[in-house]
Write a structure and sequence with these properties.
The chain is about 55% helix and about 10% strand. The chain is α+β, with helices and mostly antiparallel strands. The protein folds into two domains: about 80 residues, Glutaredoxin (3-Layer(aba) Sandwich), CATH 3.40.30.10; about 110 residues, Glutathione S-transferase Yfyf (Class Pi), Chain A, domain 2 (Up-down Bundle). The longest helix has 22 residues. The structure holds glutathione. Glutathione (GSH) binds next to helix 1 and helix 3. Glutathione binds next to helix 1 and helix 3.
């Protein structure tokens, strides 16, 4: 059985857990906070969560975990059949991950560890987030799902990246990330009701 390592408070752990549920795979959760200990780095080379354990072997990075799960259990598919649309789906995932979530993540030390970030960094975050969210809204269809009719991996990244980024942007740099983005706002509300995502949220708050 697959073991999922990490903590329920993590957005990427939650994403990997939602994927396992979506794919109807049996799994077990193992509490493992991030660490720079050698034994942890052997499982996840940057010391981050999540990672999965399969027959004693470890795999980290949520996108790599997705790639593995998609091949292990192709149903339901989370990438469109059409090669170009599949590429566009991954393009959207990249922008959500790198140009929105990772940018907002620069605010995390201030919120979690009360380590103030500089005004210069805050200005950069505001400018970079504005660019990132524009890129996302240019690519996202949002009717009814991120890429249109098909529910895909981009929906998971939309939910878990925009959720954390929105919270960090509001509380640390006083930016409403989804201001003027009614389609993305409605998409996130729909996704919150999607069974795999709803179960992860319910269990995180239990
Ligand atoms: N690129 C990684 C990011 C994972 C990540 O940022 N994990 C956070 C928790 S959500 C973490 O472990 N942070 C601890 C650290 O950076 O040391 C992925 O997609 O899985």
């Amino acid at each position: 059985m697959i073991k999922l390592h990490g903590l329920r408070m993590s957005n990427y752990y939650s994403l990997a857990k939602a994927l396992l549920i979506e794919k109807n795979l049996s799994f077990e959760e193992v509490k493992a906070p991030p660490s720079q200990e050698e034994s942890y780095l052997e499982r996840s080379p940057m010391g981050k969560m999540p990672s999965i354990e399969v027959d004693g072997r470890f795999l980290s990075e949520s996108l790599a975990i997705f790639e593995y799960l998609e091949r292990l259990q192709p149903e339901p598919p989370l990438l469109p059949d059409d090669p170009f649309v599949a590429g566009k789906t991954m393009e959207l995932v990249c922008h959500l991950k790198l140009d929105v979530e990772l940018v907002a993540r620069r605010c995390l030390p201030e919120l979690l560890f009360k380590k103030p970030i500089s005004e210069e960094t805050k200005s950069e975050v505001r400018a970079d987030l504005a660019k990132g969210i524009k890129a996302v809204s240019r690519l996202a269809v949002c009717e009814p799902y991120a890429m249109g009719d098909e529910f895909t991996i981009a929906d998971f990244y939309a939910f878990y990246c925009l959720g954390l980024a929105g919270m960090l942007a509001k509380s640390v740099v006083d930016v409403d990330l989804l201001d003027g983005q009614p389609e993305l706002t409605a998409l996130l509300a729909r996704l919150a009701e999607h069974p795999s995502i709803a179960r992860v949220s319910a269990e995180a708050n239990a």
